[in-house]
Amino acid sequence: MKKSARKNLIILFIVMLFPLTSIAQTFSIEVTAGALDRVHTVVSFHLPDDFEQGNYLLIGDDGTESVLQIDQQNRGWFILDELSAGDSKQFIFSKEFLVSDQSALAVNYLMDENTITINSGEGSVLSYFHGENNPPEELDERYRRGGYIHPVYSPSGVILTNHLNADLHPHHSGIWSGWTNTEFDGRTPDFWNIHQNTGRVDVVEESLNRENGAVFAGFSSKHKFLDLSAPDGPVTALNESWVVRVYQSGAGYHFFDLEVTQTVNSDKPLHLPEYRYGGVGFRGHADWDDPDNAAFLTAEGLGRDGHGTRTRWTHIGGHSEGELAGIAILGHPSNFRYPQTVRIHPDEPFFNFAPQQMGAMDIQPGTPYRARYRYITYDGEPNIELLNRLWNDYAWPPGVTVTEVD
User: Fold this and answer.
1) Helix (H) or strand (E) holding 10
2) Low-confidence ranges of the chain (pLDDT < 50)
3) 43 to 121, 225, 281: CA distances (angstroms)
């Protein structure tokens, strides 16, 4: 059947279901798989008209129904269940298709005074400290902070991250951001090692913005990199924004995105000399502090010897409280110096993509530094085929064409 005829049948089907719908406000989406097989793939696109934020009925050319989520930026999102390489599929949606019942959102958040926890289905995926943590007695007030993700969970609820470990690197906080070796305005603040008393990263109060949905739940938040070594008191060297989206879980895995944007706070650049770590870090579960109880794997098949190599993704996993689980961290092709080099600690469960390993870099006034990562969590051993497929989806998403139906 020709596409035009198929589209007309879909429209007829819609009119039968929604006789009061204005066809002038109906849109067609054509999704093309490209060269890759698509399974549970996130599809996103800019809308050609202003829509109310919310969830909308989406009808496929085979009559199946799914949900389109429209976010606060007037961008549409949905999960493409399956589409073979080389194929395309059409969908129809309308402004009239807004779903008013929000009682059973597939992805949602819960908040308390200090954390926001995002759930997919009945399981928690992660928590983020939008307020302050609560350090143990062994740690002083320098470690009281927010602006990081912990815990992160596997689908069965195994905790994969750690923070405030008084015995080993208490400045490592789940998934967090910081630069270590820096030069700013003639000084050398260290925003990573907060115990050095020259720098730290804090949440900007009341900067949290959040949303629920059928496709994802997430938040945006702002942080400030404080230079504590300035002679007249703390100075904000960098402004940072985080955008986190936790998606409807796939078969046997959770997944979420972190987008980081950093801008200098004045006309002075932040210089980052060559160094082995810094950027967005990951600290694994305390049980993984035993190097015999944790393993790394890069996309090229390397373990801990993958330190300093360039790679698309890296797995870290092991037994947490007796249960085997892991997480893979995927780098996006738009990232600076992609594929970025990695820091894999020789003994500890610490990892980060570290582009400054390849040489000095700068964050200049008027030129934001951006980094994008996708995190996949799972139980058991890593599935290499699955991780490669998920990276392909992340790096090379399906094509989307949106047109208004005449």
Assistant:
1) helix 3-17
2) 1, 7, 9, 11-12, 15-16, 18-24
3) 20, 33, 27
Measure the CA–CA gap between 42 and 398, rounded to whole angstroms. Answer: 9
| 84 and 24 Cβ atoms separated by less than 8 Å | no
Nearest to 330 by CA among 270, 392, 405: 392
The two tokens of residue 189 are 């603040």
Integer Cα distance of 239 and 23 in angstroms: 45
Residue 202, number of CB atoms within 10 A of its CB: 17
Q: Where are the domains of the chain?
A: 3-103, 107-395
**Topology adopted by domain 107-395:** Beta-galactosidase; Chain A, domain 5 (2.70.98)
Block residue for tokens 């059947």: 1
Say if residues 356 and 363 touch (Cβ distance below 8 Å): no
Q: Cα-flanking dihedrals φ and ψ of residue 305, to 5°?
A: -70, 0
Residue 337 gets the label, from left (phi > 0), alpha (psi -120 to 50) or beta, of: left
The answer to whether the Cα torsion of 121, 124, 126, 128 is positive or negative is positive
Find out whether 282 and 373 touch, Cβ atoms under 8 Å.
no
- Judge whether 381 and 317 are in contact, CB under 8 Å: yes
- pLDDT at position 113, please? 96
Using an 8 Å Cβ cutoff, are 212 and 301 in contact? no
Please say whether the beta carbons of 82 and 39 come within 8 A.
Answer: yes
Residue 105: what pLDDT? 76
Tell me if 123 sits within 8 A of 155, measured CB to CB: yes
CA distance 259 to 170: 24
Task: Quick: pLDDT tens for 278-316.
Answer: 999 999 999 999 999 999 999 999 999 999 999 999 999
Class of domain 3-103: mainly beta
How confident is the model over 121-148, as pLDDT tens digits?
889 999 999 999 999 999 999 999 999 9
